[in-house]
Recover the amino acids of this structure.
């Protein structure tokens, strides 16, 4: 990262845009207001907003205006939030803290939490459908998000992760799981930014976004495994050591800390190398890769 101050200013600008957009959603008065409260509780609970930031950044990198990508950015954050609500449920990871706050099902009950996640997934596609982008862009964006969310994306990866608990994994097993569970939505976030710039799937920026996010996703997951094994609850904002308690084999348990750190560096370098195919300088996106590879929570 060449200029940390420039990176921080840009990141904060994107965060502000995203937060303002999210704050304006799900405000209708209706009998099911508690459901909307549960949706907003999780959606506005904080976090780094990595995925929507990547959407705005790739829109700019592809020659578009980030403001036009805001509905797509909100969509990917809604989908991510839905996945977190469901991951935290007693039938999944059974976590009681998320981002330093009680999880959705702890506050609102399991039934409402399930419905809040379901409704956020539906609202995500509504955001794309209502975006001020060309119809071709909106159609492609819906397809990208659906692929990332479904049986060949997050849901498929989560299924493999849950059903393979307690089994000994190879490195390729873990890659298979997390290419779907973790990397798929990061890939979608980056692709959505390029689509918001009215580029198509054969555009070099779209191909660069795909390669960048695939490598970034692996670096992100391996770093996550390191932190789960080594950080405290206070630092993580959620219970640490949950992988070990749930009998999950991770990159950390398979390879150890030193080898994992080396892999994070390798995947981060590969993500940054993919940016060379972009038509404009991508210092911010390179900075994102560095930040995520070095994060401590």
């Amino acid at each position: 990262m060449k200029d940390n101050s420039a990176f921080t200013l840009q990141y904060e600008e994107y965060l502000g845009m995203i937060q303002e957009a999210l704050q304006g959603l799900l405000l209708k008065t209706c009998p099911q207001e508690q459901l909307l409260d549960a949706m907003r509780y999780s959606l506005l609970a904080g976090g780094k907003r990595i995925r929507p930031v990547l959407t705005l950044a790739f829109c700019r990198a592809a020659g578009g205006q980030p403001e036009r990508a805001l509905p797509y950015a909100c969509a990917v954050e809604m989908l991510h939030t839905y996945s977190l609500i469901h991951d935290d449920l007693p039938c999944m990871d059974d976590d009681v803290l998320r981002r330093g706050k009680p999880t959705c099902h702890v506050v609102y009950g399991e039934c409402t939490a399930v419905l809040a996640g379901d409704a956020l997934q539906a609202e995500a596609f509504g955001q794309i459908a209502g975006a001020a982008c060309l119809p071709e862009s909106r159609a492609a964006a819906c397809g990208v998000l659906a692929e990332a969310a479904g049986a060949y994306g997050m849901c498929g990866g989560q299924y493999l992760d849950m059903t393979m608990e307690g089994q000994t994994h190879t490195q390729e097993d873990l890659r298979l799981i997390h290419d779907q569970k973790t990397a798929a939505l990061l890939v979608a976030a980056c692709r959505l930014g390029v689509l918001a710039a009215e580029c198509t799937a054969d555009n070099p920026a779209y191909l660069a976004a795909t390669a960048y996010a695939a490598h970034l996703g692996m670096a992100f997951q391996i770093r996550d495994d390191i932190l789960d094994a080594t950080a405290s609850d206070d630092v993580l904002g959620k219970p640490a050591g949950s992988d070990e308690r749930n009998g999950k084999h991770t990159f950390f348990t398979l390879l150890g800390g030193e080898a994992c750190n080396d892999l994070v560096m390798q995947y981060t370098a590969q993500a940054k190398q993919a940016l060379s195919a972009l038509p404009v300088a991508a210092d911010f996106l390179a900075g994102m890769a560095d930040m995520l590879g070095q994060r401590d929570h």
Remarks:
- The mean pLDDT is 92.
